[in-house]
Amino acid sequence: MKAQGGGPRGGGAQGYGCQVERPGMCLLVGAAGVGKTLLVKRLQKLSSGDGEGGLGEPPPTRPTVGTNLTDIVAHRKITIRELGGCMSPIWSSYYGNCHSLLFVMDASNPTQLSASCMQLLGLLSAEELSKASVLILFNKIDLPCYMTMEEIKSLIRLPDIIACAKQNITTAEISARNGTGLATVLLWLQEQHKCSS
Questions:
Q1: Residue 20, number of CB atoms within 10 A of its CB
Q2: Dihedral sign, CA of 11, 113, 156, 106?
């Protein structure tokens, strides 16, 4: 996982941190089919301790129509609101009280990257999300045809996007299917929400 400061917020919790009066929510967004539902199910299992002996076979999932709310426990309760990919035109209706943002991209689908990049730019330019911490997840690295994080960064010019963003942005490669990188995602969530009450 690689943390990178963006815009005036630089490298820390400056300007947001522990000054939250109520618990902030984590938004989970990305194009349809990138693996958001499986990701949140795996995080929930991992956070409950049920994943101690391994995560087991991936649970069945269906495309999200609307939103799903899931609570995970990472030293405290964190509510993740998953927004269906087909809802992207109205994602902005859910930006209020967003403390952190998980943005998922499919590392095995280069044809979807430009649309995902446009979605990401829209999120990063939203004023309501200017203080949210952002974790960009490159999912499906277990598939043989996946692109590396460096290839994706180059293709969508991610360093330029991060340099212009107001948010603190972190990136990680994961596989929601086999669990690679999920402990790091859980730790990131814990760090972002440790001061929420």
A1: 15
A2: positive
- Nearby residues of 30 by Cβ (< 8 Å), 6 or more positions away: 36, 85, 103, 104, 105, 106, 116, 119, 137
Are 136 and 120 in contact by the 8 Å Cβ rule? The answer is yes
Is residue 197 within 8 Å of 165, Cβ to Cβ?
no
User: 66: pLDDT confidence band, cut at 50, 70 and 90?
Assistant: confident
Cα 72–chain centre separation? 14
pLDDT of residue 14: 31
- Which tens digit of pLDDT belongs to each residue from 122-146? 999 999 999 999 999 999 999 999 9
Phi, psi (rounded to 5 degrees) for 83: -105, 130
- Give the DSSP letter string of the chain: -EEE-BGGGBTSSTTSGGG-SSPPEEEEEESTTSSHHHHHHHHHHHHHTTTTT---SPPP-----SEEEEEEESSSEEEEEEE-GGGGGGGGGG-TTEEEEEEEEETT-GGGHHHHHHHHHHHHH-GGGTT-EEEEEEE-TTSTTPPPHHHHHHHHTHHHHHHH-SS-EEEEE--TTT-TTHHHHHHHHHHHHTT--
Confidence bin at 119 (pLDDT 50/70/90) = very high
